[in-house]
């Protein structure tokens, strides 16, 4: 590979490294200044004192700080449950509504975990196993299961503090009332004790006289109105209605309808009791947990002076999405209490964003969000299976085609049982032009799959039946358009041209999407699952990987153009500026807000800039680049931490966690997630790992040999060593080094583990294959034949005008076409 590296120059590295440091830290400072560099989506997340009058916190302008608040929780309540058949609950969805993401510590959130999210303002849950049945606490005793909740919180390393909500309320002397076992969990203090608790009463009965009295005297009332559950198996019959269902088996739909009818009667009775109060409270209806399967749940707030609209918080930054952990700070805001500053709570106050939709249209919109989230979930493993499988097939085809012995051995293996296929393989390298053009189209199509999966979200594929077929058709059409563009213009004649077009489209789509709110990533097959309560704004780990690989490919092409013209200093400066811009865009709180991105992007582009300048790499120089990169990342997080608490992104929250001594917990949790991904048993993880290992251990040796050894006449290069490709693209090998640095550091500092290099390989290698096949096509005429002409080679000079058409080549190197007299 040393023959492919750019020749060294006498450039001194100190000015370049110093400029890299100054520009990096300066741009990081500008990007992280409060209000600077914010996107349109992030602008709605500024402090409420700076918002326009159209966006309000619930209850912030009601003029009555003593207005009571009533929270009605129903585990498993989804938007499809709200209809004319549930008039009481539907009446609570006429004003502010949102999809509540209840994902906690496991894929399906049990009722106990949902109520604990309110108690701790963080991810907390029960011990592993089947969801427990919640029961009333006895007078003077702990909430049942409290010790298990504390032990689970300690083990999970989320720094959750069950009982935090009760502590905050007690500090401000807020009077409370809890009705039902779930409400007891939400309002229990750190010792598991709950004051002013009332039993929910018999099914179908409204507030008892004692409960009504408690509500009248309380500033905050939390009511557990029940849970929607799937049809129980025999071992799960723990309720009267469940036992009855087992004695008289009914369908899932009928069982759910019966439960919904019971809960509707309870809510109607609760509202009837609330009408007897002297003041009109703010009422919240929340589907606090799942019903056995993960899904988006109902959140509705009525009362107060806020304008009807969709809920949004800085935890989601997405219109119509609110996290379960946002309920604690939202309740504090409704009670006119100061925001929580304890690092154990991770939620943010919900705000209202007015829309032009009426109440029915808002409910339909939120139900559609859940339909899309449910539709994409089973498609994701299949999509990754296809993506990795296509990559492996492409890698194998390239490895076989580069060397005749490999193709011959494979042909003999097929000849025993598939003679027709064997015959076709024997012609594999004979019709070089046809094979190479096919491989180039396949490589560009595979590299286009990720960006096409994002663009498909512009179309309502989830409304098709089946949804997977609709998504597949849309992705295929978008891929066809991208490949056509890549092969349509004059750039198709340049070695890096088609690959750079695909990379540029990918980078452009991600840039526009992030700058406008990252809507394309929501519930897409390679984007953000709205069911897992992950970060729904900015750059997630998959987007970071695709963005970094694409930006590196574009930078390699630009720098290569300058290096070939002996303008290395300009190439190095351009590479440095692009890298710094990409890192700032990825890490700025108002844009990508990705803490793990800049530490990987900056070193990769820094090393690439040094190599573009022709500077020899040393441990000291690489170390300086790493230190500068880490400093810029910490600076961005620090400046985000300086902003108001309610405006913190996860960068500022991470900085606060470090100050509170939680760095080791974060490292342990990320390490555990990385290990679980590496050794997990899901087909997607295993297949992604197989793709990486195949590239590293199976294909590395034959590709390395064909690069360093002369080609054979039977190979796809027609006898030209593939090392010659480096003369036309001297920045390609440094670019591959930079790509390895970015993916390696990205895997180490993020919590997606092996998924980052796997996604990088799945996109980066097809781009390289497209470049390789384009170069091979440039060696031959229309029939794909290659003729090697003896003669001296002009060192360091690249052939010009290379294309897949018959064109003249520099004398003494290659003579192409069929009219060469020296055939």
Short précis:
The protein is of the alpha/beta class. The protein is built from 28 helices and ten strands. Strands 1, 2, 3, 4, 5, 6, 7, 8, 9 and 10 form a ten-stranded mixed beta sheet that branches.
Topology:
Blueprint: H1 13-32, H2 40-43, E1 69-75, H3 87-91, E2 96-101, H4 111-120, H5 146-156, H6 164-171, E3 176-179, H7 181-187, E4 197-198, H8 209-217, E5 220-227, H9 240-247, H10 252-274, E6 282-286, E7 296-302, E8 309-312, E9 321-323, H11 327-334, E10 351-354, H12 359-376, H13 379-402, H14 404-415, H15 419-426, H16 432-455, H17 467-488, H18 497-515, H19 541-564, H20 568-587, H21 598-612, H22 619-641, H23 650-659, H24 663-678, H25 683-708, H26 725-728, H27 732-749, H28 755-778
Parallel strand pairs: 1-5, 1-6, 2-8, 2-9, 3-4, 3-5
Antiparallel strand pairs: 2-7, 6-7, 8-10
Helix pairs in contact: 1-20, 1-22, 4-7, 13-14, 13-16, 13-25, 13-28, 14-15, 16-17, 16-18, 16-28, 17-18, 18-19, 18-28, 19-20, 19-27, 19-28, 20-21, 21-22, 21-27, 22-23, 25-28, 27-28
Largest sheet features: 10 strands, mixed
> How many discrete domains?
2
Oligomer: single chain
Approximately how much beta-strand content do the residues carry? 5-15%
The helix content, as a percent range, equals 40-55%
List keywords for this structure.
single chain; 823 residues; alpha/beta; Alkaline Phosphatase, subunit A; 2 domains; ten-stranded mixed sheet; 28 helices; 51% helix; disordered N terminus; disordered C terminus
